[in-house]
Amino acid sequence: MKKLLDDPADAVTDSLTGFGLAHAGLVQVHTEPVYVSRAGGPVPGKVGLVSGGGSGHEPLHAGFVGDGMLDAAVPGAVFTSPTPDQIVPAVLGADSGAGVVAIVKNYTGDVLNFETAVELVEAEGSQVATILVNDDVAVEDSLYTAGRRGVAGTVCVEKIAGAAAARGDDLGAVTEIAGRVVANVRSMGVALTACTVPHVGKPSFDLPDDEVEIGIGIHGEPGRHRIPFAGAREITRSLLDPVADDLHLAGGEDVLLFVNGMGGTPLSELYVVYGRARGLLEERGVTVSRSLVGNYVTSLEMQGASITLLRLDDELRELWDAPVRTAALHW
Amino acid sequence: MKKLLDDPADAVTDSLTGFGLAHAGLVQVHTEPVYVSRAGGPVPGKVGLVSGGGSGHEPLHAGFVGDGMLDAAVPGAVFTSPTPDQIVPAVLGADSGAGVVAIVKNYTGDVLNFETAVELVEAEGSQVATILVNDDVAVEDSLYTAGRRGVAGTVCVEKIAGAAAARGDDLGAVTEIAGRVVANVRSMGVALTACTVPHVGKPSFDLPDDEVEIGIGIHGEPGRHRIPFAGAREITRSLLDPVADDLHLAGGEDVLLFVNGMGGTPLSELYVVYGRARGLLEERGVTVSRSLVGNYVTSLEMQGASITLLRLDDELRELWDAPVRTAALHW
């Protein structure tokens, strides 16, 4: 295993230390316990937004801490849920008195640890609403979940709920908006190669040179099936059709199309997939008015991509467009 | 070879088509011949900025077309120089009458083809100044160059010259600023794995599982030497020391530290390298006042990274900070 790391046991903290130094104007990295908060602390009167989950999906979530998005992020060990003792100070620190929305990807460990943390935080007098993200249409239950997994759609939830909080919505309103995104966002991914967890030192699974895994999870969990590799057009269709069908997308509707890289795939290939997806959506009479293409919810160095569609309405579109200033999203 | 492409012969145009659709507000993609220009055409009275080179380094250069950076980018085939017939319309289209600066990475093919194109353009009455970028300290001459190669420092040249043009500097002043960046920027890279050119279909070189290539070029050209893999700390030192020494960096000086990913390395590892580089610069008494971390000048899916240092002065710092709105850099 060759990785730009030293002791694999320090992979997460070494990376966060560099991240904190590179973005000192945006974030503060805490180490005991580990979490990342917005530089300057919570904004008075604003609803706080906190997310978290296993590391290995960078820039998710720490890359989305900043103006117009998250107030704190809680990174666990690689592909491992953060613990309640990390989540509690992150949530308390994000609460300026207006309450906190916790955005949790639907994995059993994340859900349980956030539940425990929220109970402890509420005992301190903070109000917390939890939003579960479960956008992955690939499988109903999986290795680490009851119900669908939360994947790249999480970026849409964090961006749009973050904008709602930034414009001054109260806890109920931010929660409603976040829920509306969850209800209208779906994703599915493909793996061309496996990834290697640093402290394991070998690839998470075997994938033959001529096959891809459709419906892969962001931890390399099994997907729907393996198919012979047959080019971008066919792979794009095998991802886009289930996503669009699950959303019951109709002609005339407007979506955000998000092509996400798994970490090891060149940006140029993500744009090929984006172009193919645009063609398929055009065939359905669906308009794409907003786009995002890049590596935002990754699986270490896995090669592959996911397609996310978010059904837009005027308010979601306006909140997506609202200014954001974080390490990974900035406009 | 598994890549998210269809016919490898169409890799560049398929990717550019997707890029153009995803960023329709920023860029216009031309196909006969292939080049990318800023949406809305050149800004009246502003010096035009054009760059180009082989594809496979995305987001370089098309990802830097937009407000505050390039007016046009000319992508060749993968790892192949663009031809004069592509460069000519890109340069002519970028000229609002104030002249054009052509930013060319120092590779023999790029230099020759830009020279030919500039002669043709000048015959049409446009004034063009050419800036050669040769920031790679790894080797003096190499597979594709006389003199040093141009690598990730190109992003610094394009950003800062772009800001100078945007604030209204004339052709001479933009050229002077671009030259000042070239004189003060140095880079060196490492490969952990090779990459595969789509129309070749097999890795460009062999690299054993326990070795890395120090001083690699962005096309997989040989570097200085191979060393046993020994972790991020040692690799960072083997890149940073030659770069800082070549710049004759002295204690008390201020730099931009840019850790660039080669495409297949997780962002989390780039932050580890960034943190290690910060430590080494601190030992030298050098201040890091500006930072950039991410995949900006890539080699397809190669795993590895490069370190770039730019010696800053007040004007370069101000121009780096100036607003930019492109697909790949936005603040």
TrEMBL record, chains A, B:
Pathway: Polyol metabolism; glycerol degradation
Molecular-function GO terms, alphabetical: glycerone kinase activity; phosphoenolpyruvate-glycerone phosphotransferase activity
UniProt enzyme class: transferase
Positions in coiled-coil regions: none
Any one GO cellular component localisation term in the record: cytosol
Pfam family, one: Dak1
Residue ranges occupied by any DhaK domain in the UniProt entry: 7-331
EC number: 2.7.1.121
SUPFAM superfamilies: DAK1/DegV-like
Keyword 4Fe-4S carried by entry: no
Catalytic activity: dihydroxyacetone + phosphoenolpyruvate = dihydroxyacetone phosphate + pyruvate
GO BP, one annotated term: glycerol catabolic process
Listed PANTHER family: TRIOKINASE/FMN CYCLASE (PTHR28629), TRIOKINASE_FMN CYCLASE (PTHR28629:SF4)
Subunit structure comment from the entry: Homodimer. The dihydroxyacetone kinase complex is composed of a homodimer of DhaM, a homodimer of DhaK and the subunit DhaL.
Official protein name in the record: phosphoenolpyruvate--glycerone phosphotransferase
Originating species: Krasilnikoviella flava
